[in-house]
Design a protein that fits this description.
- With 381 residues, this protein is an alpha/beta fold.
- It is 38% helix and 14% strand.
- The chain has 13 helices and 15 strands.
- A seven-stranded mixed beta sheet has the order 1-9-8-5-4-2-3, sandwiched between helices.
- Helix 4 links the parallel strand 2 and strand 3 (95-98).
- Helix 2 (32-45) packs parallel to helix 8.
- The chain binds pyridoxal-5'-phosphate.
- Pyridoxal-5'-phosphate (PLP) binds next to helix 3 and helix 4.
Length: 381
């Protein structure tokens, strides 16, 4: 069997044609395709405004900056996520605080979040890990109770719903990533969505050096050539070339999600009655799955099972090592033991391939190899 990667983009002829068309047009960046992509995205995620940026990490950075957080502020998030989810607090001089996950859903546990709230807490970043959705009705209520802001990290969950609503319908901001392993891709790419006009204006400025030409925002002159830098922003722009790809990819979102769902259901059927633990779908979550992880009942066998699958050309992975166990986080004072369930989950977990181009045969092969490498138990098939 050829190597089966854990994630992979699906680029088709019409995606390529759309990019070529952009290349032949007058705009390579900051042209009409950016606004078109933003409009399409905003509609799909149920938000009023979208700001396309160069990647999901940039989206987290400007979302945190737009809230004005800095030194002395605390930002609560999950440790079972890509490091960018908590790094955005560090970029702003704020302090990431890690709350533990729920062992079944692998999502940030709202009761553990509540325990970590202090007078200096400013933001909660729920991560829709794997494409399962956090209970946003509950998080929105908690945030309003303590006057906190919410940035949803939706890098995994494009197309998912929570509590019957689109992710963009909630207060605060949502961030998205269009890296090739994510649900749709623009090469590198990301976005922030929101329903708040003031945050939207601030995000637009932060994307482009903090500069505005909007007459309503200018402090002084308003000559036709005049612009002002109002914040210390960045060049986090997404190109028209990339947005052309994004527009084309968004049209395929439903098809991609449907195929991912079929594969998840096959994995679930194969592993449900086994000693392997699979990620549960909580009752409020209508998932759009990005990752499929299994957790072994015998954690000392993780390396062996991982290597056995790799030897069979299955591109297994681990998502994620708790962020605070990374050497950098240790160097700034974090230590093991903060989130015991997350640490235990990490030691047991293996990510299996999940992307729309997987064939039924490949999925069957992965299931067979997992059962064999795990070995000692007879599974239902
Ligand atoms: C991918 C990812 C990001 C960052 O996105 P990039 O586009 O790679 O910068 C942020 N959060 C999570 C949970 C991710 O998986």
């Amino acid at each position: 069997m050829e190597y089966i990667s854990y994630g992979k983009q699906c680029i088709e002829d019409d995606d390529i044609a759309a990019v070529v068309e952009a290349l032949k047009s007058d705009y390579l960046t900051s042209g009409p395709r950016v606004a078109e992509f933003e409009n399409d995205l905003a509609k799909i995620v149920g938000a009023r405004y979208a700001v396309a940026v160069s990647n999901g990490t940039a989206a987290l950075h400007i979302a945190a900056l737009a809230l004005g957080i800095g030194a002395g502020d605390e930002v609560i998030t999950t440790p079972i996520t890509f490091a960018a989810s908590s790094n955005c607090a560090l970029y702003c001089g704020a302090t990431p605080v890690f709350a533990d996950i729920d062992g079944d859903t692998m999502l940030l546990d709202i009761d553990k979040v509540r325990e970590k709230i202090t007078p200096t807490t400013k933001v909660i970043i729920p991560v829709h890990y794997g494409g399962e959705l956090c209970n946003m009705d509950a998080f929105a209520e908690l945030a309003s109770e303590y006057n906190l802001a919410i940035i949803q990290d939706c890098a995994h969950s494009l197309g998912g719903k929570t509590c019957g609503k689109a992710q963009g319908e909630y207060p605060g901001m949502q961030i998205w990533s269009f890296h090739p392993v994510k649900t749709i891709t623009t090469g590198e790419g990301g976005a922030v969505t929101t329903n708040d006009e003031n945050l939207y204006k601030k995000l637009l400025r932060l994307r482009t050096h903090g500069i505005t030409r909007d007459k309503n925002q200018l402090i002084n002159d308003n000559a036709p050539w005049y612009y002002e830098m109002l914040d210390l922003g960045f060049n986090y722009r997404l190109t028209d070339i990339q947005c052309a790809l994004g527009i084309s990819q968004l049209k395929k979102l439903e098809r991609f999600i449907k195929r991912r769902k079929e594969i998840v259901e096959r994995y679930n059927d194969a592993f449900r009655d086994s000693p392997l633990k699979i990620q549960h779908t909580p009752k409020w979550s209508s998932p759009a799955r990005h990752l499929y992880t299994i957790r072994l009942d015998e954690k000392h066998r993780r390396r062996e099972v991982f290597n056995a699958l790799l030897a069979k050309n299955i591109g297994v992975n681990v998502h994620y090592m708790p962020a605070y166990l990374m050497p950098y986080y240790k160097s700034i004072g974090y230590s093991p033991g903060i989130c015991p369930i997350a640490e235990d989950s990490y030691e047991r977990m293996i990510t299996l391939p999940l992307h729309p181009l997987l064939t039924d045969e490949q999925v069957g092969y992965v299931i067979k190899c997992v059962k064999e490498s795990f070995g000692k138990v007879v599974y239902s098939s």
